[in-house]
Design brief:
Layout lengths: L1 H8 L13 E4 L7 H7 L28 H14 L3 E5 L6 E5 L4 E2 L1 H12 L7 E4 L5 H10 L3 E4 L4 H13 L6 E3 L5 E3 L8 H17 L16 E9 L4 H17 L4 E3 L7 E5 L6 E7 L5 E8 L4 H13 L5 E2 L7
Parallel strand pairs: 1-2, 5-6, 5-7
Antiparallel strand pairs: 2-3, 3-4, 7-8, 9-13, 9-14, 10-11, 11-12, 12-13
Length: about 325
């Protein structure tokens, strides 16, 4: 990994390509504390501000999870307090990662996918980026309209996403990245291994190269839009034959959307039913899918307008109130 950084940055001081950069690492007391001391420090980086580097399976400081708000907040605090140029954070075993810009901007989920896509785009024109099913419309527009790449929104489950990338590569198609919003990301150049440290190496190398040009890594995703609101709710399927009950619910919901002009089923779609809401009152999207592991219906929704998710739920609540094999208690659909 150190040799990859040296070759990629190709600094005047070849052995110290990260000299002059301060990088704060938060490993959440997982297995990746070595990234700071055994990779970054020998290459010249200042790791002041790094925290929770010692492995401790009790995880006494925060959950080691780049999707977790508390974890990202802790990493953000480390960056701001140490005036770092960049922060990186890992999950417990290092196969997921995320970043924090110097101004405290959290780069995980859709933003991480956008950043990795932007880093890869110059060497992979017209390539395919594979993601999971809950990525935002704004990310899709950024990948396709700004980077001029193809975005393939596939299924949830990092193995599903990665296997799709491998499949495309075997077909001779250029798929440099297969990544889930969870932070599981795999690059073709790294044999499609889901490796959070490798993702962060790519980000660090790009930051170092741009710095030589007098540029900032933040500018790579300054045109990425963000939803105004987002949420996820989970509805328990109360039937013993939960798989059949879930599939029937999806079929019935497809019929429900067909008779409403303000709802459009998005195609192609590889998991559940993704619906676009087109009127200004609730402009956004919703994905209704079955959990990969549990007897649960999962609903992800995003809106471009304030109060839009509630307007979307107003439109679909009549349907879900008729689903006697779903428990909506305590949810916005009750």
């Amino acid at each position: 990994m150190m040799e990859i950084i040296k070759k990629s940055v190709n600094a005047n001081d070849y052995e110290k390509p990260l000299a002059g950069l301060r990088i704060a690492v938060d490993s959440g007391n997982g297995a990746s504390g070595f990234f700071a001391s055994r990779i970054l420090t020998p290459l010249g980086a200042d790791i002041t501000g790094s925290r929770f580097l010692d492995p401790d399976g009790h995880f006494p400081n925060h959950v080691p999870n780049p999707e977790n708000k508390d974890a990202m907040s802790a990493a953000r605090e480390a960056v701001l307090m140490s005036h770092a140029d960049l922060g990186v954070i890992f999950d417990c075993d290092g196969d997921r990662g995320a970043a924090i810009f110097s101004d405290g901007t959290e780069v995980n989920r859709n933003a991480l996918i956008a950043l990795m896509s932007a880093i890869l785009a110059p060497e992979h024109p017209e390539a395919i980026i594979v993601t999971d099913s809950i990525t935002s419309d704004e990310l899709h527009d950024f990948i396709e309209d700004e980077l001029h790449l193809t975005h393939l929104r596939f299924k949830r489950g990092y193995k599903n996403v990665i296997n799709k990338g491998i499949e495309l590569a075997k077909e001779g198609k250029d798929c440099p990245l297969a990544i889930e919003t969870s932070g599981h990301g795999a690059l073709c150049e790294n044999y499609f291994s889901d490796d959070g440290a490798y993702l962060c190496v790519k980000i660090i190398c790009e930051m170092a190269r741009l710095r030589k040009e007098g540029r900032r890594i933040e500018e790579l995703i300054d045109k990425l839009g963000h939803p105004t609101e987002e949420t996820e709710i989970r509805l328990k399927i109360t039937s013993d034959d939960f798989a059949d009950a879930g599939r029937k619910m999806l079929d019935d919901f497809t019929g429900f959307t067909a008779v409403h002009n303000d709802m459009t089923v998005v195609q192609p779609n590889y998991e559940g039913i993704r619906v676009a809401f087109n009127d200004e009152g609730g402009k956004g999207w919703m994905l209704v899918r079955l959990s990969l592991h549990d007897p649960v219906v999962v609903i992800n929704a995003e809106s471009k307008t304030e109060g839009g998710i509630e307007k979307i739920f107003d439109k679909i609540r009549p349907f879900f109130r008729t689903c006697d094999r779903l428990d909506c208690t305590g949810t916005p659909l009750a």
